[in-house]
Amino acid sequence: MSEEGYKQNSSITMTDGRSAGTELYVGGNKITDEQFATLPENQLKGGLLGWYAVCSINSLKEDQLYFFSMYNEPLVLYRDKNKSAKCIKDLCPHRGSSFQGGTIKEGDIVCPYHGGRFASEGNCTNLERITCQHIVDSNYNNYAKKIHLNQYPCIEKDDYIYIYYNGKSSTNLEEIEYKADLEDSRPDSYGFNTADYTYEEVCVDFKCDWARIIENHLDILHIFWVHGDTIPDKDVNRNVITSFNQKIIRDSRHIESKYNHKQQDKGEFITIKFIPPGRILIYKGTPEDARYIQVLDHIPLAENRARVIVRHYRKFLKNKLLTQLIMFKSLQHRIFYRIFTEDYLILKTQSFNEQMGYVQKDNVKLLGEDKMVQYYWDWLQNALKNEKPWTLHPTKINTNSVYKDLPMKYPPENQSLAKNNNRSIIFQLILRLLIPIGLLIALI
Ligand code: FES
Ligand SMILES: [Fe+2]
Description:
Elements: H1 3-9, E1 22-26, E2 29-31, H2 33-38, E3 50-56, E4 66-70, E5 73-79, E6 85-89, E7 103-105, E8 108-110, E9 117-118, H3 127-130, H4 133-139, E10 151-152, E11 154-157, E12 160-165, E13 198-206, H5 210-218, H6 221-226, E14 244-250, E15 255-261, E16 268-275, E17 279-283, E18 292-302, E19 305-314, H7 320-325, H8 328-355, H9 371-387, H10 402-405, H11 416-443
Parallel strand pairs: 1-14
Antiparallel strand pairs: 1-2, 3-12, 4-5, 5-6, 6-10, 7-8, 8-9, 11-12, 13-19, 14-15, 15-16, 16-17, 17-18, 18-19
Fe (ii) ion binds next to helix 6 and helix 8.
């Protein structure tokens, strides 16, 4: 969303909604709505520039280049000679070619244009290929030394590849000033122990505004209306009139909303936690006891393009043989794809309405259950104003569209992943039927 758009949104005030039972907590103390919104020490300290989980470790194969972008800036991930993940700007420092079409040789990235080869530290290891030796000899410090990859800090943790994105790639990672702490993003820093879980995940791209998807995942009401037929829970369907007692907790690292059923005996419905800049955790119970955690990572690829990695951690069904037998992975993926497809039309059209400037004070009203969205908007508005991430690498009107097409992964509208997954379910089912029949025939 544009900064201007949020300026207008910022004047939206909460309207009393159905959720009269909202309680606000800061540092364990119950406070009023006004105090909650304005106490400076309780503002989220993280901004839009910081640590992002951009890729699952399974997606980054050895000797392969993984292209993506952040806030319009084209980037590449690859594994160096120590098999460590590296993140660089997709720009060869010799003459500005992309690394698309390039290769990895013994952990060095090799440019497709003149064969310039770069070590994991970023320095060119075969200067003689791109310049004469006498230039290297006579002018090394002024010229050749500067042929150096532009990098971003990159760390592998919890089976994710995180990058520290500040919008300014650097030839010297030692000089980077960190304004955010990776530990603040990790579920384990909030009391979870992800080592106790197993997980399934999918990665899906959307042609819509990044902020709209986060908002969708913070939105409790649409779960019943949009996903009521898909989510395998009998209490989640269109006929349920939802209303919750909401408990919102905020500290400098996160905002959390716990939704409790109004009927005392039903207890908690769900807890949603937003951790800047792009992570959401959804679970039920305490972090120590939660049977599942859904971890959603939102990656701002470019204007109107966003990537989501959804990972579903579970403490149950951990037996590999059993899960294979009941096709758990494929069936779980089927639900993921259906949910994303259900959201997609809304995300696309809502992005359009926002970009047209329709999502403004007089046109929309945030009601009781939208409190999380309101706090998210407040945070986003401040972060956009302070950091202006979309102005760091603005696209020009005539920019070659090659980057717009190449980094996309499985946009839901082509449905190819969902179709392949359905085919695999049918195939696995047939196989499970044929094997016993075959055995029976053999015995007879
Ligand atoms: S542009 Fe990359 S080696 Fe020349
Ligand atoms: Fe949704």
